[in-house]
Amino acid sequence: MNAKIVDTERRRQKSDRPNPIDVHVGARLRLRRTLLGMSQEKLGDAIGLTFQQVQKYERGANRIGASRLFELSRVLDVPVSFFFEELSPPAGGQNATPSKETTTDGYQPNPMMKRETLELVRAFLRIADPQIRRRLFDLTKAIANAYPGDQPDS
């Protein structure tokens, strides 16, 4: 096959959805930024981008280059590998794919990616007393077990 044809076939068309790996990396970026309580604007300022560009990265609409990913890992205080955690291993020579919690549309089907979940985790981590944290953890589990359900109410 002609190299030019192969190259054209591999390129993403404007109408195509974002690459699932780009969406996953963007979701991990958003997760870490939100856990730190950092706004998109503040993150953008730290790496010389607009908040709109950060939004595009987080949705997977724009691919994050290696040097930018390294810079983001430094600002967010995580190893570069953090952005690839929870990816399924490649099967049969295909690209790795995000775990079932991440979809290709870039939005938050995973309850762990919801703002309220991230705020709850941040608040929980601010509780200094380990006994109080443990009691709150046990209470939360007891409530969840008392009202089992497949889907949390949104």
Quick description:
The chain is mostly helical and 154 residues long.
Descriptive labels:
154 residues, mainly alpha, 434 Repressor (Amino-terminal Domain), two-stranded antiparallel sheet, 7 helices, 52% helix, 3% strand, globular
**What's the total count of β strands?**
2
CATH superfamily: lambda repressor-like DNA-binding domains
Q: Strands of the largest sheet, in order across it?
A: 1-2
Strand and helix order: HHHHHEEHH
Which structural class is indicated by helix and strand composition? mainly alpha
**N- to C-terminal distance:** 50 Å
Count helical runs.
Answer: 7
Largest sheet: 2 strands, antiparallel
Q: Would you tell me which CATH topology applies?
A: 434 Repressor (Amino-terminal Domain)
Structural summary, described in words:
The protein has 154 residues and is mainly α. The protein has a single domain, classed as 434 Repressor (Amino-terminal Domain), CATH 1.10.260.40. The protein is built from 7 helices and 2 strands. The protein has a two-stranded antiparallel sheet with strand order 1-2. Helix 2 crosses helix 4 and helix 3 packs across helix 4. The chain is globular and about 45 Å long. About 6% of the residues have low confidence.
Question: Which secondary structure elements does this structure contain, and how are they paired or packed?
Answer:
Blueprint (H helix, E strand, L loop, with lengths): L2 H8 L9 H16 L4 H8 L3 H9 L6 H10 L11 E2 L8 E2 L16 H12 L3 H17 L8
Antiparallel strand pairs: 1-2
Helix pairs in contact: 2-4, 3-4
